[in-house]
Design goal:
Layout lengths: L5 H4 L1 H4 L10 H7 L8 E5 L5 H8 L3 E6 L2 H7 L8 E5 L11 E6 L10 H13 L1 E12 L5 H4 L3 E6 L2 E11 L6 E10 L2 E10 L3 H10 L2 E7 L14 E8 L4
Parallel strand pairs: 1-2, 1-4, 2-3, 4-5
Antiparallel strand pairs: 5-11, 6-7, 7-8, 8-9, 10-11
């Protein structure tokens, strides 16, 4: 992963992250494949740790990895934080002797992998750390949709320090649909902080091809958190379930 955006690396913005990302449909979806029996789970790009902590609350053994110290600081304040092994690392550089029953990358973290080399290294790392027959799951946004239009929005957050307004605006669409650059302007009580971001919108076929080269086979691609089939013309999400090739 590249260096984290300001919204992840600045502690003032990291402290606000969960206020603007309160949805739980994706979290509920990713909890399901873990089941009830204790599992070894790797959460790559864990952010503030909401999913990792939810796994831990169910008795799973969790390793949570993120490149942004500010996000991990938020995670380490939470109840049950001691049940998760928190590691500061990119998805490409993370290494352990442990293998896992489930590897997830959520919050569209896959889209911060901007180069082929980053995508290849991350998928290879997933395959390397996966137990035979076990599952990799992550999502990316469908590049065929008009994200410039979808993302033209703002919202307000009430914080202990006053109201914060967040406004998203596009910076560069010249490389669309594969790359989009945009900014979040956070209007804090004491001034404005701007976080610039670039995301990569790979097509489903391209992601499947990268996964295949890394030794991972696509089991299914879904289009929403309720389990609907992926429709390249309509679905916002591309939700991948992968397993290591040749594993029984």
């Amino acid at each position: 992963m590249p260096a984290p955006d300001l919204q992840f690396s600045d502690q003032r913005l990291a402290d606000l992250y969960d206020l603007g990302n309160a949805g739980s449909d994706d979290r509920d979806y990713y909890l399901s494949p873990a089941g009830e029996a204790p599992q070894d789970i790797l959460d790559l790009g864990c952010g503030t740790g909401l999913l990792s902590l939810a796994y831990a609350a169910k008795g799973h053994r969790v390793v949570a990895v993120d490149p942004a110290p500010a996000m991990l600081t938020v995670a380490k304040r939470a109840p049950l934080r001691e049940r998760v092994h928190w590691i500061e690392s990119t998805s490409e550089a993370f290494v352990t002797d442990q293998t896992f029953d489930l590897i997830v990358m959520t919050g569209h973290a896959f889209q911060v992998l901007l180069t082929n080399a980053q995508v290849e290294a991350t998928l290879a790392n997933m395959a390397r750390h996966l137990k035979p027959g076990s599952l990799v799951a992550f999502e990316s946004r469908n590049p065929t949709l008009d994200w410039d239009y979808i993302w033209g929005r703002s919202y307000d957050m009430e914080t202990p320090h006053g109201s914060v307004r967040a406004v998203r605006r596009m910076i560069d669409t010249s490389l669309a649909p594969e790359f989009l650059s945009f900014a979040w302007d956070y209007q804090l009580p004491d001034g404005v902080l701007t976080s610039d971001s670039t995301l990569r919108f790979l097509a489903a076929d391209a992601i499947i091809e990268f996964a295949d080269k890394a030794g991972l086979k696509a089991e299914t691609v879904l289009g929403d958190w309720q389990g609907g089939a992926f429709d390249p013309d309509l679905s916002r999400e591309m939700i991948f379930k992968l397993r290591r090739k040749g594993a029984e």
